[in-house]
From TrEMBL:
Record keyword Transferase present: yes
Residues covered by the Methyltransferase domain: 43-132
Protein name: Ubiquinone/menaquinone biosynthesis methyltransferase
Residues of the signal peptide: none
InterPro entries: Methyltransf_25, SAM-dependent_MTases_sf
A biological-process GO annotation: methylation
Methyltransferase keyword on record: yes
This protein's UniProt keywords: Methyltransferase, Transferase, Ubiquinone
Taxonomic classification: Bacteria, Pseudomonadati, Pseudomonadota, Alphaproteobacteria, Rhodobacterales
GO function terms (MF aspect): methyltransferase activity
């Protein structure tokens, strides 16, 4: 299968999904509870996908502005369509490595792995306003007793997966301190997998080889987590520079 065919099949599956990874509005509420965001808070939603977290981010200040950015064209288009005409939101097609505006909160749900925790935190530090913070979720092992199925899946997807202590160590090595940390809930995972399940079922009939391969991988991702959710998940960390 060529890379182009695989990419096209991936976006066929993911187009019009409400989320691009596990998460729920309560994650934003919890993260913001550690912060004293100003009334006119400047917030970045980095690698925003279709914009699933924008509404929750807007609710955390009286007169906020959210700058949401992503490199994927159709995610940017979806977020722009949803927030068209709302001057509280700016949606940009932009690289998460190159953010430069000043923010009170940088939010990154499930995408920091594109850069790595240390490089991301170091690169974004210049964009934090005084008392600013970064909140990010990252896949994480919760147990040393791991099934071959779970280990095999993540060895393919993200071989650098570490545990909670490993994530915390990377945060500290980047010159930050943890002010809050928790695991994403089962509800956060099902908020992603539920619509994904329905989309897979919709696309199966008539799918070509490339699309079937992508559907199979997505089915395994959901089935593996549901069978082994005690072994791994996402860790949400709220951090500030030391």
């Amino acid at each position: 299968m060529t890379t182009d065919l695989a990419k096209e099949a991936f976006f066929t599956l993911h187009r019009d999904l409400p989320r691009e990874g596990p998460g729920e509005a309560g994650d934003v509420v919890w993260a913001a509870s550690f912060l004293d965001l100003p009334a006119r808070a400047q917030i970045a939603d980095v690698a925003c996908g279709p914009g699933a977290d924008i509404e929750a981010l807007l609710a955390e200040a009286e007169h906020p502005h959210v700058t949401a950015l992503d490199l994927t064209e159709h995610f940017v288009a979806a977020a722009r369509q949803q927030w068209r005409g709302d001057d509280r939101v700016t949606v940009l097609k932009a690289d998460m490595k190159a953010i430069s505006n000043p923010y009170d909160l940088i939010w990154c749900a499930g995408a920091v792995y594109f850069m790595g925790i240390g490089p991301a935190l170091k690169a974004w530090r210049k964009s934090l306003l005084p008392d600013g913070a970064i909140a990010f979720s990252e896949v994480c092992w919760f147990s040393d007793d791991r099934s071959p199925r779970a280990e095999g899946f993540w060895a393919q997807q993200y071989p650098n997966t570490t545990d909670e202590a490993g994530i915390t160590a990377q945060i500290k090595d980047a010159g930050y301190k943890v002010i809050g940390q928790r695991r994403l809930s089962d509800a956060a995972w099902e908020a992603y997998f539920g619509p994904l399940d329905a989309r897979i079922a919709q696309l199966r009939d008539g799918a070509d080889a490339a699309l079937n391969a992508v559907l199979d991988e997505a089915e395994e991702e959901a089935a593996c987590w549901r069978a082994h959710r005690d072994e791994y998940g996402y860790l949400l960390s709220v951090v500030r520079p030391v």
